[in-house]
Amino acid sequence: MAGRAAEPEVIWARPERAGRGPRPAHSRADIAAAAVRVADAEGIEQVSMRHVAADLGMGTMSLYNYVPRKEDLYELMVDAVSGEYDYPEPSGDWRADVLGLAHQMRAMMLRHPWLPRLMSPVYGFSPNALTYLEYSLRCLDPLDRPYGAKMELIASLNGVVTTYVANEIATAERTRSLPWSAEQEQAVRIGYLGAQVASGRYPRLAAAFTEDSGPIDLEAVFDRALRRTIEGFVAAPS
């Protein structure tokens, strides 16, 4: 297939368009933006070389001259939306700074619900990903830990955000697919749960629900998960 590499390669080390010929009609950024448009509007399942090529008004085979594999297209997409981060001057309070980045990541994933499914260390070395990592480490300059430990903290926080948001998105998608309202669903489930807890078979759950019957503040839960990850890291031996 045209443009497909015979050996492993990094898309960022590849020229914008393989082969000789006239000036490329589309930039790598154009292609990434088209793929992101498709994913945002129709879901990651609809992102294909054919669909993206059609969005750009070009033939599928022509697109392979720019992007040799669908996996490379995914990498372009992740890098493109990673350019949405805002990088203010670090405050000197490294906890506050990395928490701010984590909240930015969550907002970005909610804007692009397909993103958690594509998060991979393989895509961690694109231009915008490297900018993110460098800035994260800069925020952590006041923390007296080796760089390896700081990278572990960044990875742990990213993992918390990705897992949390993936659950948020899955819940929202399920709710949209129901033939009844979310309130109706919740009322039925709470009724069932209340009956089970009241049966006496689950005394600890009964105590837990008596102690705090909700509703759950999901924003506060998210923030606590991040802070506990940070404080657990600080408390752990280096």
TrEMBL record:
Q: Which Pfam families match?
A: TetR_C_1, TetR_N
GO MF terms listed in the record are: DNA-binding transcription factor activity; transcription cis-regulatory region binding
**Membrane-crossing residue ranges in chain numbering:** none
Where are the stretches annotated Disordered?
A: 1-26
**Which domain of life, per UniProt?**
Bacteria
Q: A single GO BP annotation from the record?
A: negative regulation of DNA-templated transcription
Sorted keywords for this record are: DNA-binding, Transcription, Transcription regulation
Q: Please list the residue ranges annotated as the HTH tetR-type domain.
A: 25-85
Q: Where is the DNA-binding region? A: 48-67
SUPFAM superfamilies under this entry?
Homeodomain-like, Tetracyclin repressor-like, C-terminal domain
Name the PROSITE patterns for this protein: HTH_TETR_2
Return the PANTHER family for the record. Answer: HTH-TYPE TRANSCRIPTIONAL REGULATOR RUTR, TRANSCRIPTIONAL REGULATORY PROTEIN
In Swiss-Prot or TrEMBL terms, this protein is called TetR/AcrR family transcriptional regulator C-terminal domain-containing protein
